């Protein structure tokens, strides 16, 4: 007898006793339930189709009109009013590949001692489901003083061409954005840009047993040492404006051949203190290798401290800081903050996890923030649930 096909999204609803009334105290449990399902679906960078399919089905179950381009998904609240400001809620559904130090299976989502383990749980699954349920909470209300646009994007981990930047021109007019990344629910009001260099040190091949040839590795070491020790000038007491890190190296054909070429990669994070051109000029004046800049350089971003979203965040007790990591913010030409549950220090580590309470609290803080931006509006359905 042929087994009946079960819709995995409908199965999620049944398992989590889903109800459209998101004022119920189990909203946090529903968000964690969704996150567990998403962790189980491989969503490595540029291979997010299956998880995007699941999220699209999940949102469609709420009678939302969902738009999709590649593996990017977006939708608007059901009572959208073009005369009101629109706030973008954005996070990504893709993950890096698990590193070799994992003890747990990376796609085995389980809770232990208040922690939900699994690849992407912290970066950025916790922020993703928190923003989804924040959106669904407000989606029920017809008297909002604002609109919401929920965007779930792909290729964030490599700043790919088929990520958020391919849909920004297709979104309706956006006033400002909240980008969901693990920040302890503090507000990142500045974010460094990212530039990646492919470097080649060239020598002359020879036999390792004789004093012949020019060793490209030795030439590369000189430049690598400079990258590791040089500091761009900055005012005293200020953080480094440019952070350069050699992250990959490759050279040599076999043990008895002097290598004629050594390739290495440099990851550069930079703020508004120096332009891309100024950074490259400094590097060229101090190194000897051939340098090529990879495409898709991410520009630094920042938001005015007096912006309403920043002031609202401060009003509800959230702190502000400058972020050294990059995100979808780099492709947004509108004011934005980066904010979400979890800890950036856990991102890309083995046995990644997020605290269950971080997700539950994150939803409430997002709602408090959006409510505080418009003093005339008060959310009437508090949802705080026990962790």
Output the keywords.
four-stranded antiparallel sheet, Alpha-Beta Plaits, 8 helices, Aminopeptidase, 2 domains, disordered C terminus, 387 residues, alpha+beta, disordered N terminus
Number of strands: 18
Major β-sheet annotation: 6 strands, mixed
Alpha plus pi helix count: 8
Strand order of the largest sheet: 1-2-6-3-7-17
Radius of gyration: 24 Å
Structure, described:
The protein has 387 residues and is α+β, with helices and mostly antiparallel strands. It folds into 2 domains: 8-191 and 300-373, Zn peptidases (Aminopeptidase, 3-Layer(aba) Sandwich), CATH 3.40.630; 193-293, Alpha-Beta Plaits. It contains 8 helices and 18 strands. The protein has helices at residues 8-16, 27-39, 49-60, 121-139, 216-229, 276-286, 308-315, 356-373; strands at 67-69, 72-76, 86-92, 110-112, 115-117, 147-153, 176-179, 187-191, 193-202, 206-207, 242-251, 257-258, 261-270, 290-293, 301-302, 320-323, 336-338, 353-355. The strands form 5 sheets. It has a 6-stranded mixed β-sheet with strand order 1-2-6-3-7-17, with helices on one face. It has a 4-stranded antiparallel β-sheet with strand order 11-13-9-14. Helix 2 (27-39) crosses helix 4. The protein is globular, with a radius of gyration of 24 Å.
Short structural description:
The chain is α+β, with helices and mostly antiparallel strands. It contains eight helices and 18 strands.
Topology:
Blueprint: H1 8-16, H2 27-39, H3 49-60, E1 67-69, E2 72-76, E3 86-92, E4 110-112, E5 115-117, H4 121-139, E6 147-153, E7 176-179, E8 187-191, E9 193-202, E10 206-207, H5 216-229, E11 242-251, E12 257-258, E13 261-270, H6 276-286, E14 290-293, E15 301-302, H7 308-315, E16 320-323, E17 336-338, E18 353-355, H8 356-373
Parallel strand pairs: 3-6, 3-7, 7-17, 8-16
Antiparallel strand pairs: 1-2, 2-6, 4-5, 5-18, 8-15, 9-13, 9-14, 10-12, 11-13
């Amino acid at each position: 007898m042929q087994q009946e096909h079960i819709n995995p999204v409908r199965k999620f609803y049944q398992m989590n006793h889903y109800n459209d009334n998101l004022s119920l105290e189990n909203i946090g449990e529903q968000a964690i339930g969704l996150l567990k399902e998403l962790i189980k679906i491989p969503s490595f960078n540029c291979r997010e189709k299956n998880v995007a399919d699941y999220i699209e089905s999940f949102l469609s179950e709420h009678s939302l009109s969902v738009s999709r381009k590649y593996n990017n998904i977006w939708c608007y609240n059901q009572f959208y009013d073009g005369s009101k400001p629109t706030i973008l809620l954005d996070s990504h559904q893709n993950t890096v590949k698990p590193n070799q130090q994992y003890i747990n299976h990376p796609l085995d989502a389980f809770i232990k001692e208040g922690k939900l383990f699994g690849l992407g749980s912290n970066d950025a699954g916790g922020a993703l489901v928190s923003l989804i349920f924040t959106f669904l909470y407000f989606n029920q209300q017809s008297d909002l003083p604002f609109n919401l646009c929920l965007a779930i994007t792909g290729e964030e981990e490599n700043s790919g061409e088929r990520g958020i930047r391919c849909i920004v021109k297709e979104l309706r007019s956006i006033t400002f954005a909240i980008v969901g990344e693990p920040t302890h629910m503090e507000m990142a009001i500045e974010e460094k840009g990212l530039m990646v260099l492919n470097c080649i040190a060239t020598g002359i091949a020879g036999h390792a047993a004789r004093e012949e040839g020019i060793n490209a590795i030795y030439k590369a070491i000189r430049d690598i040492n400079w990258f590791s020790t040089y500091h761009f000038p900055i005012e005293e007491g200020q953080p480094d404006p440019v952070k350069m890190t050699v992250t990959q190296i490759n050279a040599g054909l076999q043990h008895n051949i002097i290598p004629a070429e050594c390739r290495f990669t440099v990851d550069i994070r930079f703020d508004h203190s120096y332009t891309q051109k100024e950074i490259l000029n400094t590097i060229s004046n101090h190194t000897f290798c051939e340098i090529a800049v990879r495409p898709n350089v991410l520009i630094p971003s920042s938001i005015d401290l007096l912006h309403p979203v920043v002031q609202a965040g401060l009003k509800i007790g959230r702190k502000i800081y400058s972020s050294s990591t990059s995100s979808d913010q780099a492709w947004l030409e509108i004011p934005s903050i980066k904010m979400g549950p979890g800890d950036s220090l856990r991102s890309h580590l083995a046995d990644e996890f997020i605290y269950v309470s971080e997700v539950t609290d994150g939803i409430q803080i997002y709602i408090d923030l959006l409510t505080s931006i418009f003093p005339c509006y008060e959310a009437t359905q508090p949802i705080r649930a026990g962790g």
